[in-house]
Amino acid sequence: MSDGKVETPPDQSSAAVSPHASVQQNNPLSRKLNKILDTRLDNDKEMLEALKALSVFFTENSLRTRRNLRGDIERRSLAINQDFAQIFKAVKEELESVSEDVQAMSSCCEEMTNRLKATKEQTQDLIVKTNKLQGEK
Question: A GO BP term, please (predicted)?
Fold first, then answer.
């Protein structure tokens, strides 16, 4: 590979047929195309899922749609992310509401506990006197 030529596997007979095979192999587009053609999509689940998702909105194969494909994908990605952020914002607001309710319940429980302690302190003397009188009978 030091001379800039790309070696072809022995099963490709195009090098023997075409006199321009070395020029075609040096062409970046040809290399990319050959790489794509050599890949096995049956085993690549992620690629299959990506192609299925792409086929949903890439219905027309024209020069204009191919040029706009990256922008379309980025716009769809942005829209999905904005939807996610909006939904997540609603969830966050609901969680904050629940947190406020829990804080209010905690304050109420603390207040009731303090009242019970105060009542117990106030009635402690009465309970002691009652027990003392019952013991005298």
Answer: protein transport
